[in-house]
Amino acid sequence: MTIIDIIRSELLTVLENNPSKNIAYHNNFHMIKVAEIAAELWKNDYSYLEIGDAWGEIALLISAMLHDWGHSGGHETDDVNIRVACTEAEIFISGSLVSWPEVRTIITEAIQCTQFPFVRPPKNKVERVLRDADLLYTAIYGDPAVVIEHLRSEVEVSQGRSITRREMLRGQEDFLKSAVMFTPHGEKLWTEHAYLFFQSMCDYVNRLEPPVIDTCNLGHKFAKLHDHPLKDGAPRCPHCMAMGLDSIRSQKEMQLKSILSFIDEGCDELLIRRIWERAMRVGHNAER
Fold first, then answer.
1. Using CA atoms, how far apart are residues 240 and 244, in angstroms rounded to an integer?
2. What is the pLDDT of residues 4-32, one digit of tens each?
3. CA 242/CA 230 separation, integer angstroms
4. Which pLDDT belongs to residue 211?
5. pLDDT digits (tens, 9 = 90+) for 259-282
6. Would you call 111 helix, strand, or coil by DSSP?
7. 10 Å Cβ neighbour count for 153?
């Protein structure tokens, strides 16, 4: 057995005593899969070792397998979760083959780098790989229920309120759009999996909560969602909204044209400024 195999076996034993091993999302399964993804990223992006980097792969394994150890499942903020995980990592390190202070620092700082919302960008190879692997987990695993049901239940605990599936879906859309990969292979995997995973989440939510087809006064058909954000759940046709915005934009363009004509005619500068300010207000209100 290699030293990697020995440490992995020791870590699996530690995970058996993890108090959060069976919670909805940040459980043992999550950490083991993140460690597998991290190993793939390391192999593809960092297959060669630099001087002084001989312990990098081991540090990555330990930080990945323990980064959510003892997670509160939403009952505590993530900085508290991170401190709990770092404490367990230090306990593990002190009794393992990698008890060097330098390795201890690499591991605890890599775990700290996974705190969400993110507090800082990764600053070394171990942190870049772990951050990417943690984000890639749901997209590569590919089960929409992991996010829409399991992660949602933890978010509900943390926010102290109920969250609909569609609200969770909208939040995931924003999250996926803002996600950043820090390794070349991580970027490749994200490109291959993220969009398809989002589509699978959309299909999952639509299957459980089919949208209601409504018709506006002008005869346009549109999907009215169950948790429509407008007042009193009043349906609002996106086709009519688009037509209204087009109309307002046309008014704005006409006013701008009138300004140009006034300028051509040598109109008073104060009057031009007032017309311009009014045009800007119309445009601003239309886009809000």
1. 6
2. 888 999 999 999 999 999 999 999 999 99
3. 16
4. 74
5. 556 555 555 555 555 655 665 565
6. helix
7. 16
Phi, psi of 27, deg, nearest 5: -115, -170
- In 10 A of CB 136, how many CB atoms? 26
Rounded CA separation 2/57 (Å) = 12
Which candidate, 243, 248, 246, 271, places its Cα nearest to that of 258? 271
Please state, in angstroms and rounded to a whole number, the distance separating the CA atoms of residues 272 and 261: 10
* Its pTM surpasses 0.90: no
Contact 193, 253 (CB under 8 A): no
Delimit the domains of the chain by residue range. Answer: 3-208, 212-288
User: Looking at the domain that runs over 3-208, which CATH code has it been given?
Assistant: 1.10.1300.10
Quick one: tokens of 200? Answer: 């699978």
* Structure confidence by residue, pLDDT tens digits, 64-107: 999 999 999 999 999 999 999 999 999 999 887 666 777 889 99
